[in-house]
Amino acid sequence: MGAATSPRALPRQRSVARKLALQALYRWQLNECPWQDLVQEFSTAEDMPRADREYFRELLEAICASHAALDERLALLIDRSPALLDPVEHAALLIGLYELGHRLDVPFPVAISEAVALAKRFGATDGHKYVNAVLDRAARDLRPDEH
Fold first, then answer.
1. pTM for the model
2. Overall number of domains in the chain
3. Over the stretch 38-74, which tens digit does the pLDDT of each residue have?
4. Domain containing 7: what range?
């Protein structure tokens, strides 16, 4: 088994896929387009060779397709309309919510910490604290037996 497919490589590849998904979702919020266009556009991204391409594709397809439902759930957890969120924090929250609700193979602390790390790296100064609080609330609802 090569390094790229070793079990230890998968978390790193997924982290890169999440980072690219955040960037793609940010772009999508500014200029909506079919998710397939985003996959194509980001296929040549500098980090793509180190990413889990299938996971990146899944995130974009699922989040774009269920954007309205994810925002409805998000609206129950936050103090403003999802449309008023900073696009970086919004994208991080969408990724975290999707993973909490649909990827039970991703432990809830991983889903939260990955989204928080993205918000810390790319978002506003304290945006990561907001993302953490919102996703912690979401985890209590979506994964009560794990929390």
1. 0.93
2. 1
3. 999 999 999 999 999 999 999 999 999 999 999 999 9
4. 3-142
CB 112 within 8 A of CB 132: yes
Q: Taking the C-alpha atoms of 84, 90, 91 and 95 in order, what is their torsion angle to the nearest 10 degrees?
A: -140
Tell me, yes or no, whether 147 lies in a domain: no
Token pair in block for residue 46: 């500098």
Given this model, what pLDDT does residue 5 score?
Answer: 53
Cite the DSSP H helix spans in the chain.
9-30, 35-42, 53-65, 67-77, 87-102, 108-122, 127-142
Q: What is the CATH number of the domain that holds 11?
A: 1.10.940.10
Establish if 128 belongs to a structural domain. Answer: yes
Residue 91 counted as domain residue: yes
Q: Quick: pLDDT tens for 87-132.
A: 999 999 999 999 999 999 999 999 999 999 999 999 999 999 999 9
